[in-house]
Structures are given as C-alpha cells and as structure tokens.
Amino acid sequence: MATPASLASVRALLGVGALAAWTQALITSWPRLTAFGPICGESSGILGFVGHCPACYVGAALTLGLMLTYARRPEVQSARA
Fold it and tell me: The whole model's pTM is what?
C-alpha cells in the first residue's frame, strides 16, 4: 500500500506534468485559436490521430492518471478469527 507521502508526490508529479502538457498544447494552438481555425497545430503528422497534437494525448493521459489517484478504493476488511 502506498504511503500518503509517496501518493502526494505522485499526485504532484502527475499534476505538474499535465499542466505542462496542456500549456504546450495551448501554446502551439494559440495562433489557430485566435484565427478560429483548427485547434491543434500538429494535427497532420503520424501522431495527429483524430486531429489532435501529441501534447493533447500526453495531457489527457496525465490528467486521467491524476484523477485515478483520487478515486476511492474499496477498503479491504481483514478476516479476524
């Protein structure tokens, strides 16, 4: 079982990573956003599946990982004889 200190550090790393990835996605798409064009800037490459840039996938994965650390886990009750 993870200790609260290690869980807090994992949450911090996931949060900072997600923030950095979403910031990168926003920076690369800002000119297109202000011109009302397509959102992601690198949507034509091999990683541009469904019109998203690679930073979107990294940001989504890190955000999902962060949200999963906050999901409640069922408490396991030990069987006492």
Answer: 0.71
